[in-house]
Q: What sequence folds into this?
């Protein structure tokens, strides 16, 4: 499905397409880019986009954004994800960047934004804690003012790629007496500060994507506070809206669906008793995807006319993750007996894996995709948001 | 239809529970899985010493005569503890085949060493094109005097890297897909011209692909009549499914208990998770899924114990229904545990992975649903 594009937008799309084809690093085309790339490899595309001026589509021009229209931004997102490029680190460009240019002071903007754009600083997100998952406002990490520093103590968890991070943006409690949402502040912490410890969490697919981050008497200069003290919840919600919008994942699901079709074609003979079952299930998920894509296009068109999409992000999150999970399940099912194998981590091309290449990451993807309905606000929470904000229940 | 277990059966269950409780806690299992070999010979021996390997076999061959219900009890407890040792492959698959179609000499030669735990066996039937169809086999067995010469490739042979002996299917006549012409052979794991390519499985076990390049097998090691392999494998699959369903029930029991306990202690928004109605209903559905699975598993095992006709159809039905139920319970257990459900440190994700493996071995729920439909 395509947006009806003006001549200018169509030319833009062709330009983006050609740029990707000519510039996306071959080195990044590995079996599973999300787990198989080193930090340096995963930054290659980031740096190419930075040099082109395309690294931060969302950002206003004055901070280094390309000055694109909503339609152009959508086209860029669509083209890059359809081409299977690894998106630049979301925690830097999509999440903390907009918080800094929206709520930060001039010094913070000058200090942090250029390094986010260039990829010099790698950011991670210090939101979740062992006692604060879906209920994010329950964060207990304490920041106590001591002269011109905050002294931070706490335990952040599920911190994605903290092992690579230079900085972490944290929700910390600065007023324990206030209502949960009212006593939270938004603090930027240098990962090299004494007292910051990162411990890997291995997930069920065997990969090391997330971490525990322990903060013990970490001294953070007060100049690293974003906006006002105790107003952090406002900034956090602003950021989460950005996080969920990108969760429809149409491009990724479209690619994985195409691959699923190819796998079924070569794995399932037409006289196999489950052949028709696969055809039907693939059609079903394809229609789900089509409906989500049409919804996304409808909302993009509305946004282009200046209409606030409201909690559409929650709808995208729910359906986008359900669809991708279903595709990974069907792919794992399609490879049959080969689905028993799971690549060892860290992966190595020297280790034997049974079956054709296209199945080698199917098991780990199927396992890893279980997280999608949990993170970024569980799908149950997204249902609550729509029930409250849209239906008024 | 509820099974009233005998005192003997309850004793068997209690003895397994005691052993696994003492020696097979989740941390102990983690060490076993991470070891070089990937399973524990010491634990295997302990299980055999308890009489578990002899439990299902007839007294006429030196077994304890427990039959399908003994297997069910064992596998259910193994499911609860995620036991990786190759009981299913050695006792249920290979031992079952030898007892069912082996000659008197083969039974006498092989079963005692299975029952005392001194040999480990597995079964290799699947090939790349076979998916879940026993007949789609290209491996050939050519008669050469007093030997057969086996050539071909087998895939997804679980526990093969641990095994001393393998049973493999091969064609003496016909082409891939033919319903006749398949025979079974006992092959020594260290036979000349047999090569293994090992890999790790989703559930933390080991498996291998077998490459047979003119492997010579004495004619006496053909298991069952020539050309009768498919029928033997079909009956073997019925027994396998009954055992897998029991194992899945064990895993689901633990998942439901863990999820329920978590929902009663984990607090978000100032209340326990269990106070949210949407999660209450989810857990009720998980409870129902388990109850139905227990019922079908008992029904299948009772039918197996009394040699009911048309067992194969019931087996496929149970494999589909219990597999789907187990997958639902596993999915929701991970979901309700939130991030913890994704963590390798918690047992929940490991039950999820074991259930995923059960749903592949001997055919997935979709395959067995269609098989059930077609046999009506």
A:
């Amino acid at each position: 499905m395509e947006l009806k594009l003006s001549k200018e937008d169509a030319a833009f799309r062709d330009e983006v397409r050609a740029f990707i084809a000519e510039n996306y690093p071959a080195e990044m085309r590995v079996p599973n880019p999300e787990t198989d790339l080193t930090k340096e490899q995963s930054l290659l595309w980031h740096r190419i986009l930075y040099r082109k001026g395309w690294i931060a589509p969302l950002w206003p021009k004055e901070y280094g954004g390309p000055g694109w229209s909503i339609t152009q931004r959508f086209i860029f997102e669509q083209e890059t994800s359809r081409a299977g490029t690894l998106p630049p680190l979301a925690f830097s460009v999509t999440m903390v960047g907009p918080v800094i240019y929206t709520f930060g002071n001039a010094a913070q903007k000058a200090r942090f934004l250029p390094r986010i754009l260039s990829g010099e600083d790698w950011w991670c997100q210090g939101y979740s804690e062992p006692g604060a998952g879906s209920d994010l406002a329950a964060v207990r990490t304490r920041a106590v003012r001591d002269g011109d520093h905050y002294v931070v103590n706490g335990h952040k968890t599920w911190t994605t790629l903290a092992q690579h991070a230079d900085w972490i943006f944290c929700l910390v409690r600065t007023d324990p007496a206030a209502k949960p949402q009212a006593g939270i502040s938004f603090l930027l912490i240098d990962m090299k500060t004494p007292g910051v410890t990162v411990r890997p969490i291995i997930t069920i697919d065997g990969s090391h994507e997330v971490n525990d981050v322990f903060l013990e008497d970490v001294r953070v200069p007060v100049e690293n506070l974003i906006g006002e003290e105790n107003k952090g919840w406002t900034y956090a919600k602003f950021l989460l809206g950005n996080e969920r919008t990108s969760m429809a994942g149409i491009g990724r699901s479209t690619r994985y669906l195409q691959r699923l079709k190819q796998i079924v074609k070569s794995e399932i003979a037409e006289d196999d008793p489950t052949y028709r079952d696969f055809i039907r299930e693939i059609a079903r998920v394809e229609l789900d995807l089509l409906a989500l894509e049409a919804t996304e296009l409808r909302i993009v068109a509305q946004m282009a006319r200046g209409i606030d999409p409201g909690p559409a992000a929650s709808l995208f999150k729910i359906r986008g993750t359900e669809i991708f999970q279903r595709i990974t399940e069907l792919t794992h099912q399609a490879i049959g007996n080969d689905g028993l194998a799971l690549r060892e981590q860290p992966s190595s091309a020297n280790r034997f894996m049974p079956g054709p290449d296209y199945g080698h990451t199917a098991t780990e993807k199927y396992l890893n995709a279980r997280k999608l309905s949990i993170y970024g606000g569980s799908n149950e929470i997204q249902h609550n948001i729509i029930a409250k904000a849209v239906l008024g229940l | 239809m509820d099974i009233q277990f005998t005192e003997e059966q309850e004793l068997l269950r209690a003895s397994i529970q005691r052993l696994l409780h003492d020696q097979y806690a989740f941390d102990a299992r983690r060490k076993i899985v991470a070891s070089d070999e990937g399973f524990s010979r010491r634990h295997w021996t302990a299980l055999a010493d308890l009489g578990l390997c002899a439990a299902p076999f007839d007294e006429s061959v030196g077994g304890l005569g427990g039959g399908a219900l003994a297997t069910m009890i064992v596998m259910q407890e193994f499911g609860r503890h995620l036991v990786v040792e190759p009981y299913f492959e050695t006792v249920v698959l290979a031992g079952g085949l030898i007892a069912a179609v082996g000659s008197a000499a083969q039974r006498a030669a092989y079963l005692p060493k299975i029952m005392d735990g001194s040999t480990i066996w597995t079964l290799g039937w699947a090939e790349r094109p076979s998916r879940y169809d026993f007949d789609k086999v290209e491996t050939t067995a050519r008669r050469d005097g007093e030997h057969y010469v086996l050539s071909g490739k087998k895939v997804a042979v679980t526990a093969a890297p641990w095994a001393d002996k393998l049973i493999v299917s091969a064609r003496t006549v016909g082409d891939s897909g033919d319903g006749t012409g398949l025979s079974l052979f006992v092959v020594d794991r260290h036979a000349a011209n047999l090569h293994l390519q090992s890999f790790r499985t989703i559930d933390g076990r080991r498996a291998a692909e077998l490459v047979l390049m003119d492997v010579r097998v004495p004619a006496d090691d053909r298991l069952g009549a020539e050309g009768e392999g498919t029928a033997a494998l079909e009956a073997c699959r019925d027994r396998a499914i009954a055992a897998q369903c029991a194992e899945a029930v064990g895993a689901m029991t633990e998942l439901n208990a863990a999820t329920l306990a978590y929902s009663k202690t984990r607090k978000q928004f100032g209340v326990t998770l269990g106070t949210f109605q949407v999660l209450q209903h989810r857990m009720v559905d998980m409870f129902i899924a388990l109850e139905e699975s227990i019922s079908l598993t008992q029904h299948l095992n009772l039918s197996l114990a009394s040699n009911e006709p048309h067992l194969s159809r019931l087996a496929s039905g149970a494999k589909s229904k219990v597999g789907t139920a187990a997958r639902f319970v596993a999915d929701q257990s991970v979901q309700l545990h939130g991030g913890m459900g994704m963590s390798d440190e918690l047992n929940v994700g490991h039950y999820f992975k074991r259930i995923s493996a059960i749903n592949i071995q001997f055919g997935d729920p979709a395959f067995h649903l269609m098989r059930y439909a077609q046999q009506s």
